[in-house]
Design a protein that fits this description.
With 255 residues, this protein is mainly alpha-helical. It has 10 helices and 6 strands; from the N terminus they run ααββββββαααααααα. It has a two-stranded antiparallel sheet. Strands 2-3 form a two-stranded antiparallel ribbon. Strands 5-6 form a two-stranded antiparallel ribbon. The protein is globular.
């Protein structure tokens, strides 16, 4: 909540640090957040990659739309009420990393969004490749000083291999053909299909989900990747993305 002393109508409104922007979702990272990665204020286990093709809210055009590029976002804490609540927000005291908060947080003011809009229009978003480039010259991966050098060197290659093998876009497009989209999204031209084609598509999705889950497991068990950084390295599991649109495992779909 933002308050303004109405007895002084020329006084500009000020942020009361009510935390609503933090509860509704953490920020996405910009290239200007590089220093926060290097310092360890933001570590890879605190971040999640939202991949191209995932459904996300478009605050400019309104509504939910598939992402046109990937985003690196401060991961949420889950839960029913505010699943994307910023992990650094503390009830009663505010931001735990306020002095090194991401640039989007510094720019955001709910009563005047112009500074944030200017930032978004003039500063590139950070992606995983850029994050790896930023951290390439660091002797240790911030937050993971014990990570084996060989495993660390594999991270960009694992990311690329996973993106080639298990992109999110075709999976969610197939789900949409089957009529599975987020609540509030209308499928205007959903394909009509017979039962056999539907089962074929469901079986294909099931195999894709299982293959992707196996890749994640191999990253941890064979490549030595800490499980905590998989949401950043590989994004969210395809199974979770399908559950979000209402396609849940059943005895017949085997997904």
């Amino acid at each position: 909540m933002i308050s303004q002393d109405m007895s002084s109508p020329l006084e500009a409104p000020v942020c009361r640090r009510c935390g609503m922007c933090c509860l509704r979702g953490g920020p996405t990272l910009m290239v200007d957040d590089a220093s926060r990665l290097v310092s360890g204020a933001l570590t890879l286990d605190s971040l999640v990659c939202l991949r191209k093709g995932e459904w996300a809210r478009d605050d400019v055009r309104g509504g939910l739309r598939p992402l046109e590029q990937e985003y690196i976002k401060v991961s949420g804490l889950g839960g029913q009420v505010h699943p994307w609540r910023c992990r650094y927000y503390r009830d009663g005291s505010g931001c735990a990393i306020y002095a090194q908060r991401p640039v989007q947080c510094s720019a955001l003011f709910c009563m005047d969004t112009a500074p944030l809009e200017n930032l978004l229009s003039g500063t590139p978003l950070m992606d995983r490749a850029e994050a790896f480039r930023i951290l390439a010259n660091e002797a240790q991966l911030p937050g993971f000083p014990a990570l084996d050098a060989g495993a660390r060197a594999l991270l960009p290659d694992l990311m690329a291999a996973h993106e080639e093998q298990s992109p999110a876009t075709p999976v969610l497009e197939t789900a949409a053909r089957l009529g599975f989209v987020p609540q509030g999204v209308q499928v205007h031209d959903a394909d009509a299909m017979d039962a056999e084609e539907r089962q074929t598509l469901l079986a294909h999705l099931g195999e894709t989900v299982r293959t992707e889950a196996a890749f994640r497991q191999l990253c941890v068990e064979r490549a030595g990747v800490p499980a905590a950084i998989l949401p950043f390295l590989l994004g969210r599991p395809l199974r979770d993305l399908l559950v979000e649109v209402g396609l849940r495992p059943t005895a017949t779909d085997e997904i």
